[in-house]
Amino acid sequence: MTDKYVLKKDHLLPLLRKLGKSHRLIAPLRNRHGDTLFTEIDNLDKVRIDLDNQPQNSLKRFFFPQQEVLFTYNNPDPASYHFEPVEEESGPALYFGVRPCDLSAILYMDVVFLKDAKDPHYLHKRQNSILVGLNCNNPFANCFCNATRNGPFIDFGFDLQLTDLGDRFLVECDRSRGQEIISQWQQFFSAAGDKDVKAQYQAFLEARGKFRLQVHLDLAARKLADDQVPESVWEELSMRCQDCGGCAYICPTCTCFTIRDQPTSDNDGERIRGWDACTFSGFTLMAGDHNPVDRQMRGIEKRFRHKLQFDVKKDSRPSCVGCGRCVNICFGGTDIVRFINMTCCENT
Asked: What distance in Å separates the CA atoms of residue 254 and residue 188, rounded to the nearest whole number?
């Protein structure tokens, strides 16, 4: 059986209706305010799936929620605490319209949460997920996934991957769950022909030439590794950064978190995991209010060294996927593209 298929666009919604009977559906939806966001679909007939615009959020919050209860606890007497793990209850979910950058971000989170000690909360969500990707025929204005080598097309890591060919999608399988969907609902699919495969390749060639940003990410990573970033770069970025955390919250690969205990009564409470950011003033705060890091100068440096130096050394790849969301959100102008441009343009 061929591993490439054709799905007519007229058949997409009927297929999603079938899949929605056994899965929660999450897709980019255009809301009444004009924003495109990955959102769980309650009724396919009352929403607009938007495959033309980049979702402003990523899928991070579905796999690694902003606030998540890990344990409940009680302390019937001051000398003892009893902790009870919170069991995951989310059912199977199908994520549709996942761009290569967001798919690569999930693969990065797999490394963070599953490589060594497996996080049971993340693992449950991941095992219950089906990823239906969408290659980028037209990269968005602030995208630079070509520089991070995970776009505009991707050929691994998905269950099904779609390429827009006008009146139809070319569909590829990478994992058994994708093949199971095609086998179960084969009436929606037909075998791809040479014309379809050539059209996909042509779309790929054209997409590679449509990037508007030229980002020298590899050069910036080498300068970081060789400690060749001028101090003036850190000074300017630190001055401009407002410590709002928007870059970390919008980034699909920022996975720093903090854990706190929240009382719910005199003797009971919850242990909660929540997102954190290395630019926050309390990120490296220690007991006694001592902070070994100069937060005014070094918070933003920590962020970019993490993305382009530490993760490259540890995993042989940057933890930036080139989605450009930080460029869109940062009102202080301290996004990663500005950092790379400043680093590569400085005379050193």
From this structure: 38
Q: Which positions ≥6 away from 274 have C-beta within 8 Å?
A: 66, 67, 68, 257, 258, 259, 260
- The answer, as to whether pTM is greater than 0.70, is yes
Q: Please list the helix, strand and coil fractions of the chain in percent, rounded to the nearest 5, in that order.
A: 40, 20, 40
Q: Is residue 69 part of a domain?
A: no
CB atoms within 10 A of CB 265: 7
- In this structure, are 196 and 49 located in the same domain? yes
My answer on whether 22 and 156 are in the same domain is yes
Pairing of strands 93-98, 80-85: unpaired
Residue 308 lies in a domain: yes
Task: Residue 277: give the domain boundaries.
Answer: 217-345
Structural domain total, the chain? 2
Identify whether residues 140 and 252 lie together within a single domain. Answer: no
Q: Is it true that the peptide bond before 14 is cis, omega within 30 degrees of 0?
A: no
pLDDT digits (tens, 9 = 90+) for 32-60: 999 999 999 999 999 999 999 999 999 99
Tens of pLDDT along 197-211? 999 999 999 999 999
* Full DSSP string of 184-203: HTGGGEEE--HHHHHHHHHH
**Does 330 lie in the same domain as 204?**
no
pLDDT at 296: 64
Kind and range of the H or E element at 100? helix 100-114
User: Is a pLDDT exceeding 70 seen at residue 348?
Assistant: no
Number of Cβ within 10 Å of residue 259's Cβ equals: 12
Buried residues in 220-248 as b, exposed as e (16+ CB within 10 A): bbbbbeeeebeeebbebbbeebebbbbbb
58: phi > 0 → left, psi -120 to 50 → alpha, else beta; which?
beta
Kindly give, in sequence order, each residue whose CB lies less than 8 Å from that of residue 9, ignoring residues fewer than 6 positions away: 167, 168, 169
Q: How far is CA 118 from CA 47, 90, 124, 266, 333, in A?
A: 36, 18, 10, 33, 36
pLDDT digits 0-9 by tens, 114-134: 998 899 999 999 999 999 999
> Looking at the domain assignment, is residue 15 inside a domain?
yes
C-beta neighbour count of 59 within 10 angstroms: 22
Q: Does the residue 198 lie in any domain? A: yes
